[in-house]
């Protein structure tokens, strides 16, 4: 059976290979993230607006940038 490549390359990442990262966190943390990404008066054009996955991706990237410098 052929291996699917559907989610290995994502159009949002300009053809770069991607992997799924699944995390388990406390409900309270999810509520805080949801509150932040759905704030009224927020920037609707911001990639994190209403998008948990993008919020988490950016948070990880920012943390790695801070820790590696």
The helical percent reads: 40-55%
Uncertain segments are none
Q: How do the helices and strands follow one another from N- to C-terminus?
A: HH
Structural class of the secondary structure composition?
A: mainly alpha
The shape, in one word, is globular
Radius of gyration: 15 Å
Helix count from the secondary structure assignment: 2
Summed up, what is this model?
The chain is mainly alpha-helical. The chain has helices spanning 27-37, 52-68.
Describe it.
- The chain is mainly α.
- It has a domain of 44 residues.
- It contains two helices and no strands.
- The radius of gyration is 15 Å and the shape is globular.
- The model has no long low-confidence stretch (mean pLDDT 82).
Index terms:
69 residues, mainly alpha, 2 helices, Toxin-antitoxin system protein
Topology:
Elements: H1 27-37, H2 52-68
